[in-house]
Specification:
The N and C termini lie close together (8 Å). By secondary structure, this protein is of the alpha+beta class. It is elongated. 20% of the residues lie in helices and 64% in strands.
Length: 56
């Protein structure tokens, strides 16, 4: 069975897995900051949340 947690950086995901001897299945970027360029135009910036899928 796969489990999931949300973190603010990939480094936090990796630290969590290493500290607990889990196996990484996937790391998925799930939230980006948006910058408004003009009325209907947005630019995506760096990812601010990652979902870690792992196996115990």
């Amino acid at each position: 069975m796969y489990l999931n947690e949300t973190f603010f950086s990939i480094e936090e995901c990796i630290d969590f897995v290493n500290e607990n001897n889990y196996e990484i299945i996937n790391i998925i970027p799930i939230q980006y900051e948006l910058i408004r360029l003009d009325y209907n135009n947005y630019k995506k910036t760096e990812c601010t949340r990652f979902e870690l899928i792992y196996k115990e």
